[in-house]
Amino acid sequence: MLDLPASGKKSRSEFIAEQLEEAVIKGAIPAGSRFDETSIAAQFGVSRTPVREALHILCGRGLAEREPYKGVVVTQISAQRIDEMFEAMAELEATCGRLSSHRMTMSERAALESMHREMNALAEEGDCVGYNEINTRFHDLLFQGSRNSDLIAAAQTLRLKLAPFRKYQLKDKGRLKRSCNEHQQIVDAILDQSPKAAENALRRHLVSAAQEVLLKRQRQEDEVAKATVLDKV
Amino acid sequence: MLDLPASGKKSRSEFIAEQLEEAVIKGAIPAGSRFDETSIAAQFGVSRTPVREALHILCGRGLAEREPYKGVVVTQISAQRIDEMFEAMAELEATCGRLSSHRMTMSERAALESMHREMNALAEEGDCVGYNEINTRFHDLLFQGSRNSDLIAAAQTLRLKLAPFRKYQLKDKGRLKRSCNEHQQIVDAILDQSPKAAENALRRHLVSAAQEVLLKRQRQEDEVAKATVLDKV
DNA sequence: TTTGACTAAATTATATACAAGCCCCGGTAT
DNA sequence: ATACCGGGGCTTGTATATAATTTAGTCAAA
């Protein structure tokens, strides 16, 4: 039984929703598996009511799907869907970048460059965890720079849905350095206030991120398949 | 007490969510007003439970917001936010149009053109209701043509949020005809498979839609303000 | 052996009961 | 007169009980 919020502002439903969301994003709850209301309620030491409300929230965010009298399952996503999601993400980020290139404040531009320098250092050290953290803030700043809450919201929604697959990415030093090079193009475009260059740089960056994820995922699935066959023999 | 679904597939929560959504979109429930769980439950002749679930769904779609122990209120949207929403919508539609220009099938292109011709006729007659209906399908087809479910989802989410303001638009024959002219540019671009032209045409179309909505809204608010002042005197 | 209907168990959906937090309103003191 | 501070009422949040629906499993008949 997990701890409930000491006496936080949030209701239990929201707390549970956050916990479940994190579990889905981290891959702790595999895609396609069903949420059992009773057992989740037991885990958190609450009744089924707040659990149900939490599941509604997850569905709203597209992380799970609900079918009447059948339950809520973690959204299953095919390779083709991942491809689509990256394409959409690329377009959204490209749009944000284009707008950011001439809307960001001086201090935002400076922050972007400073994060980039920091990521360069982390890439050199091969610190994937640190890199990922700054990377998230880097991209988030690009969204914010667009000065459009609806674009930001759309981008973040999609980013959330892609989160479970991010684990396949940015895990080796080689990829980190390539990512840095791509970021260099983005930073340059923003500093130059060049919308077209920013748009292009972000599209390219997302293309290579997509490739990375899809290849790694494919490789892992192949291994699983091979292992399964071996088991049967 | 309203009728519940005869014996439909949907659960009561979903049914209620749809009804409330429609009410919000039509403006029957003004922005900023609070949903009273008890009275809504009474109206539909159900308990509070499905009403609460419906409200969660509304919140998920961004039509309402929840604050713990205070209730759920219809999302309040300022003129500036409307402006942002139209900007985001313009970028999303432009992106969809760009992709559609070279991804649509022949029959989709034909359908687009045929809808356009039909709208031309309706504009001539001044049939606003008919025009609006086809117009929705016209834009929806443009989304679908992008072949990207995430872009489609993002576009439709935003479209839903903009829906309450659509009532300020496409109400006089003049605007209908201008809209038609803009559609002509879009259709031409799609038929020519010209991504850049499609993108531009859609941005322009959305700019003028935004202007229409914002102007009409401003005018109406001014009238309300004037009336209020007169009341006080 | 397979198909089909039917029953029972499990799970979700809804209703109802209870607890907790917010808000207004009046009282009191400065 | 005004600012501060409980208390009561109302609304939301949570728990539990009941109804509706699906699914799995059994047994009979083709």
Automatic annotation (TrEMBL), chains A, B:
Alphabetical UniProt keywords: DNA-binding, Transcription, Transcription regulation
Pfam family name, one: FCD
Record-linked SUPFAM superfamilies: GntR ligand-binding domain-like, Winged helix' DNA-binding domain
Claim: Nucleotidyltransferase is one of the keywords in the record: no
Organism domain of life: Bacteria
Residue ranges of every copy of the HTH gntR-type domain listed in the record: 10-77
Single GO term (MF): DNA binding
Cited InterPro entries: GntR_C, TF_FadR/GntR_C, Tscrpt_reg_HTH_GntR, WH-like_DNA-bd_sf, WH_DNA-bd_sf
Gene3D superfamilies with a match to the protein in the record: GntR ligand-binding domain-like, Winged helix-like DNA-binding domain superfamily/Winged helix DNA-binding domain
PANTHER family, A to Z: TRANSCRIPTIONAL REGULATOR, GNTR FAMILY, TRANSCRIPTIONAL REGULATORY PROTEIN
Protein name in UniProt: GntR family transcriptional regulator
Claim: Ubl conjugation is one of the keywords in the record: no
